[in-house]
Amino acid sequence: MPSHSRSSHSSSNHTQVHHTVPDIITYRLDEALVYVRPSTNYKEAISLAIKEYPSELGNISPRRITFTIQASMNGTRRTVRISESAWEKSISTMVKGEVIAIEILPEITITTSATVDAPPPKYIADKLSDSECSPTSTSSDEPRSPEGLAATTESTNRSSVHSRPSSPGLRQLCPSFKRVTFLSR
């Protein structure tokens, strides 16, 4: 009597589907197609794309190169990007010759109007006469000139975070004070 070998899973209701990586897939960049032997390693797949499209991808940072496929979702064809973490699993479910589009992410450039070493901005105030802005005395002996106001406010703010400084505002000290103009950075 011939011996039949059976898997222990064959009598169960579950069937295991083992996916294998196809022998060949198709890379597509714009309208250019090329057959490649796929790698299950994402970084190697990126390197292979650069090798196959050297003039288009040679000067592009590998971080900007991505892969997408067309997938059917609820009856609608959608473009789906394949992340590095899903690459190996995605490749193992593809059919021979399946098309993987190569896309280039836009370069992110951060520009600022000032550098870190730039000096602080400069301001110019309307010139006030001595009679318009002279120290005044109040119940305390603290100076009330614009120069003294900053020192008074700073010391008051240090002593109590929740209390308002008792010193008057610049407009109260100098009613004719009209504007401060930003000059440059």
UniProtKB/TrEMBL annotation:
Biased composition regions of type Low complexity, renumbered to the chain: 131-140
Polar residues composition-biased segments: 152-166
Region: Disordered, residue numbers: 119-172
Protein name per UniProt: Uncharacterized protein
Lineage: Eukaryota, Fungi, Dikarya, Basidiomycota, Agaricomycotina
